[in-house]
Amino acid sequence: MQLPAMKSLGAGVAVLAIVCGASAGLGRSAWAQDGISGEVSFAWWGSQRRNEAVMGVVTAYEAAYPEAKILPQPTDFFNHWDRVTIQAAAGRLPCVPMMQTRYQTRYENLGALLALDPLIEEGKIDVSAIPEDVVEGHRSADGNLYVLPVGLWFETFQYNWPKLEPTGVEEPANDWTYERYVEWAAQARQKLDDDVYPLTQLGGEILQFQQYAQSRGEDLFEGSEPGFSAETLADWFKLWDRAREEGLTPSMPMSAEESGQAVQSFMAQGITLSRTDGDVTASDLQATLDAAEGGTVRQVKPPNGNNPLTSGSNSLAISANCDNVDAAAAFLNFWLNDEDAGVEMRSRAGLTPTATLLEAQAADPASPSTLIDRITMYTGFAETYGVNIDVWPDNTQHMVQEFKKLYEQVGFEQMEPEEAATSFFEEVRRSLEEVNN
User: Fold this and answer.
1) CA–CA separation, 312 vs 230, rounded Å?
2) 25 & 148 share domain
3) Tens of pLDDT along 138-193?
4) Is 379 within a domain?
């Protein structure tokens, strides 16, 4: 769902603080609450690295509130959603479940989450350091706020400039569209070895189609209807057919074997010289290239022209069945506002939306340069283009894989682009109708 364009992080205030190395974080006395005690179950997903950082926040919370105890329930991404779906149906969600913009609507519609507005109004959760538009971008269609973001994430176009520069092409810019990239790749193709490709095959990537649709004034969803036309989707499929046929991407059989992991991607291996992925993956990709002296990763905004940056988020909620709401609210408040915990977390669940914590992370000498680069990049995008918080309707999560499979049929010449586009458009329409009837 596309929401109104927003200027995030406070009209240059955060950027100024980052550049100056200032840190104006909230002191613990500004938000600490009395009388917090008891157990709070907390479910989230993540890698070992994220889990360690999250447990650091948990430990710090328990030190701040000695009478309170967090009961951790970590798992991987897919098991998390399987588990909380069963728990929500039984009315037994953990007090604090981690949510995401692609999934939160399902649990809001089920009535499984507690509206947070009263807790904010009572001062139990302080969101004053989060840009208002970022908070409001997570508001449900029923008018209530059920989740608060703790980590923003977004796609970028990543490219290996030292390997591309000798081809004579210009360096990519933030306001490019995918049509521009294909023309750019056609120029680079003439100067590259036959077994090196300027582009990764992206025809089956729904998030990149979303960027393409946005550059045409469309989107994935528009309320309870598809936000794109079948014609636009057919044009997208044809664009990548052209890219493949002109040797701008690897062949379909070859592309079908590419790993989804940044460190094992074709760009990491030097087979392609660009790709798209989440902003956080660039550091791992760079480490792989460094080991092979393979170049340098640079990133620009995804190719949706001058449109706002599309951002998803990982967020925290309080379940409607939680029996310790005050302690759960104190935990959300702690995560959002404790400067020491925020610095230690280093945005491993996505970039923190809390301006004061971003400033503290940027000013901390121990913060890695890759984190500073992400902060600077995001604030630059936000100030120049604005940000749209991309909350998906329920019953659409499966479309990521459906889209990929459908394009494979196009790429392997088993289906015409127009037929595939019409099929997917109707699938989106049916899925949205099912959840709204």
Assistant:
1) 25
2) yes
3) 999 999 999 999 999 999 999 999 999 999 999 999 999 999 999 999 999 999 99
4) yes
Residues 20, 106, single domain; the answer is yes
State whether 249 and 372 are in the same domain.
no
Residue at token pair 């015409």:
416
* Other residues' Cβ atoms within 10 Å of the Cβ of residue 120: 19
Q: Which amino acid is at 167?
A: T
Q: Do 291 and 165 fall within a single domain? A: yes
Any domain includes 274? yes
- The DSSP result for 196-224, as a single string, is -BSS---TT-HHHHHHHHHHTT--SEETT
Q: Which helix (H) or strand (E) holds 356?
A: helix 355-363
pLDDT above 50 for 14: no
Domain housing 76 = 13-153+310-389
Give yes or no: residues 160 and 302 share one domain.
yes
Question: Which residues contact residue 302 at a Cβ distance below 8 angstroms, ignoring those fewer than 6 apart?
Answer: 154, 155, 156, 157, 207, 208, 211, 276, 309, 310
Residues 144 and 276 placed together within one structural domain of the fold: no
Average pLDDT over residues 278-295: 91
Placement of tokens 């044809």 in the chain: 238
Q: Are residues 282 and 343 in the same domain?
A: no
Which residue in 218, 242, 240 sits closest to 230, CA to CA? 218
Per DSSP, the residues of 73-97 read: EEE-HHHHHHHHHHHHHTT---SEE
DSSP 98-127: EEETTTHHHHHHTT-B---HHHHHTTSS--
Contact 82, 99 (CB under 8 A): no
- How large is the greatest C-alpha to C-alpha distance in the chain, in angstroms? 69
Structure tokens of 131? Answer: 């840009």
* Burial of 85 from C-beta contacts in 10 A (0-12 / 13-18 / 19+): middle
